[in-house]
Amino acid sequence: MNNKMSPSVSPRFFSEKEVSKHCTKDSCWVLLGTRVYDVTGFLRMHPGGEALILRRSGKDVSREIEGPPHRHSENARRWMEQYYIGELDRDSIDEDTETLRHRKKIPERTTEEEEETSAINKCSKVNEETDLVDWRKPLAWQVGYLREKYDTWVHQPVDRPIRLFENDFFEANTKTSWYMVPIVWMPLVIYLCWYCYSLLAQERTRLFITSDYSILVHKYSFPFIFMLGMFLWSFIEYCIHRFVFHMRPPAHNYYLITLHFLLHGQHHKSPFDGSRLVFPPSLAAIAIGAFYLILRQLLSEGLGTSLFVGGLCGYVVYDMIHYYLHYGSPRRGSYLYGLKAYHVKHHFEHQRAGFGITTTFWDYPFNTTMPEQTF
Predict the structure, then answer these.
(1) What CA–CA distances, in Å, run from 25 to 51, 55, 265?
(2) Which residue, 133, 209, 210, 252, has most beta carbons within 10 Å?
(3) 102 is in an annotated binding site
(4) HSE value, Cβ hemisphere, 13 Å, CA-based, for 211
């Protein structure tokens, strides 16, 4: 989607003096040539941190967009157009806005008119050939009709909330606040840690190497089994993200396209929809329960449950990190700073690579690391 001003709305003109005044977290404008963008709402989302944008507020960022050090992708450029608010009048350096309006014969706007214009820019269908869907209606039952256009469309991100279902109950159950994940699952993690340690302390849990040979699983080995469970989760996380969330549904299959959109496509279409950055506990419980049953079938209770609780803790960490990579502002040079840049690049430029969330480790042996950028 390209949220440029509707053709029926005349672009606003700003003097350089007026643009330069917007240089704070509460109001941050930048220039791209003579085009003016209000990027206030994007500060927290920027993978390089808000300070990088604030230092360039009121200035032309064309050089930074082209790089080096980072050439922004076509999706990033398309994304920026959503914040377009008007044009720079270079002949008005020393003129105030009132003089500019008078000379350009641009009528004064009321607050209601400005809000209406903003609503038009953010919510109207600008180009039916590129939008492809009716944003005023739920998307769940529309995307399947995109067929061969779906894959390209879903990987062109937009900055807007998405409604999936008409029914309010179903819609509400697709949204989850980030803090619900630790609230629901961490008490279970803590209880199972105590339960597993107590079970191993009875010294009846054995790991059978062969039918005739086994070794005792000591209680002090629990931390190592727990960490192994977290490590195994990181592999499961990679596999789910790569092979399930990023499957390519056949263009002719309406239902697989719809399923893909509900599972992960909606997140790629609207990557900063804060209500859908973590899994609803009700849906996660199905997958978590399945993994528990598999482990209990393969291993003894003490060993299987110890691995499971480590994996469950790994899942909670994964969901929290995923949310933070979209909305957090990690310190420059830190591990999470690198992960944030890596993950945002996955959304905007390399959707078929960079599947690791909590770690990039598994991208290396499976050759799905993102290619190095060259100039």
Answers:
(1) 9, 11, 31
(2) 133
(3) no
(4) 0
246 labelled ligand-binding: yes
E-strand stretches of the chain? 12-14, 23-24, 27-32, 35-38, 84-88, 206-208, 214-216
State the Cα–Cα distance between residues 86 and 11, nearest whole angstrom.
5
Q: 268 among the known binding-site residues?
A: yes
* Torsion sign across C-alpha atoms 13, 157, 275, 184: negative
Q: What is the C-alpha to C-alpha distance for residues 47 and 273, in angstroms, rounded to an integer?
A: 16
Q: Please tell me whether 155 is known to bind a ligand.
A: no
pLDDT in tens, 167-209: 999 999 999 999 999 999 999 999 999 999 999 999 888 887 7
The count of other CB atoms within 10 Å of the CB of residue 246 is 20
Rounded to whole angstroms, the Cα distance separating 231 from 311 reads: 8
User: What local confidence, expressed as pLDDT, does residue 103 receive?
Assistant: 47
Confirm whether residue 70 is marked as ligand binding: no
Domain boundaries, the chain: 13-88, 168-349
Percent helix, strand, coil in the chain, to 5, is 55, 5, 40
- CA-based angle 371:374:375, to the nearest 5? 160
Distant-in-sequence, close-in-space partners of 212: CB < 8 Å, separation ≥ 6: none
- Answer yes or no: is 218 a known binding residue: no
Inter-residue contact 303 to 207 (CB < 8 Å): yes
pTM: 0.79
Q: How confident is the model at residue 92 (pLDDT cuts 50, 70, 90)?
A: low
Among residues 89, 76, 87, which one has the least CA distance to residue 9?
87
Span 216-227, pLDDT tens digits? 888 899 999 999
In 10 A of CB 215, how many CB atoms? 9
CATH, range 13-88: 3.10.120.10
Sheet bearing 23-24, strands edge to edge: 12-14, 84-88, 35-38, 27-32, 23-24
- Measure the CA–CA gap between 160 and 40, rounded to whole angstroms: 15
User: Could you report how far apart the first and last alpha carbons of the chain are, in Å?
Assistant: 28
Q: Which of 60, 71, 22, 16 is nearest to 43 (CA)?
A: 22
